[in-house]
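Regression check, adenosine-5'-diphosphate case 355:
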Amino acid sequence: MATRTLKCPKCKTHITVEGEPGEKVDLTCPSCKKKGFFTFPKDIQKFELDYGKSNRVIEVNNLSKAYGAFTAIENLTFHVKKGEVFGFLGPNGAGKTTTIKAILGLIRPSRGLVKINGFDIVHQIKQAKQHVGYLPERVAFYDNLTALQNMYFYAELKNVSKEQCMPLIEEFGLKDHANKRVGKFSKGMIQRLGMARAVLGNPQILILDEPTVGLDPRGVLDIREKIKEVNKKGVSVFISSHILSEIQEVCNRVGIINKGIIVAMDSVSSLSQQLQIKPKLSIEITNISEKIIDAVKKVKDVDKINRNGSILEIFCSAEARAKVVVVIEKAGGIVVNLQTKDPSLEEIFMKFTER
Ligand SMILES: Nc1ncnc2c1ncn2[C@@H]1O[C@H](COP(=O)(O)OP(=O)(O)O)[C@@H](O)[C@H]1O
Ligand SMILES: [Mg+2]
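Current build output:
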């Protein structure tokens, strides 16, 4: 039995319909009483598969790459969905750049398949890369050309109107430097120009290899905002990083890679649930004492307690939180501040990459 939710063409009410593969089901809209029918596809499994897949902008299947005897990535299988920000996380040397280069057809994989927008990156590279913007790990420009001249060069290469260049330079905060040679640019400025180049031609997919490396906090924030902004316009983003906290906020899903192997893949919240990493409760108590700490330790579901001056950091389940506060007050403690913090990607990451 399969289920579909349809919209009434007349009054737009949602109607849920159940049926078998190939079955034609007669319908009457419960709101406006309009009559109609729906035919379930014969090969429903294939339909589901195809339907699901059409939603994928990047598909990686059993991808492996060896450099001589050394296997840099092994059997990676994952996908990036249309409209999402996908974080690809792992420590240095994990295989992130190798994966990205294989996705973009810049290196030839030892094994496996990559498709972008349904096009095979090896055999249909032109179509596959048509709607992709890329920020490499080591952004490079022509040092003796100005920012604007560099952008013109890439606009021509991408077959994009030169008119886009100056507005993009301005958008990425380089307006006053447009006519300066890139050779004189700081790392942060080059990174900004790299982002401007990546979004040249309004690509529908952005692949960013550690976009925040070498940036000051302001630059990190700017890039993050830009990612959110383009994503709002419907651009799918694949972003690699070894600095988790910096991209946690922007990613819908994350894949964690360690030593060339994917060790986890999910939304940040489901990953923390899977690992049963408990949220952290931070309580400030003016008259903190050993007696109070002992009482908290005895509460069921309290995992760990750290004391930091007058603040108690308690790792416990959501259910135990209320009990903890009651126990503290019973033991004579005066609670002046209370905060809860969900597990960070950092904690999840440490769990998955510990040896
Ligand atoms: N051209 C190459 N030849 C040999 N080994 C390489 C080459 N490129 C990368 N590696 C190795 O592959 C592993 C993964 O590298 P890389 O993909 O750059 O990791 P990351 O981007 O996650 O830091 C590292 O151990 C690195 O030394
Ligand atoms: Mg890298």
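Comparison notes: The two ends are 45 Å apart (CA to CA). The mean pLDDT is 87. No diff flagged against the previous build.
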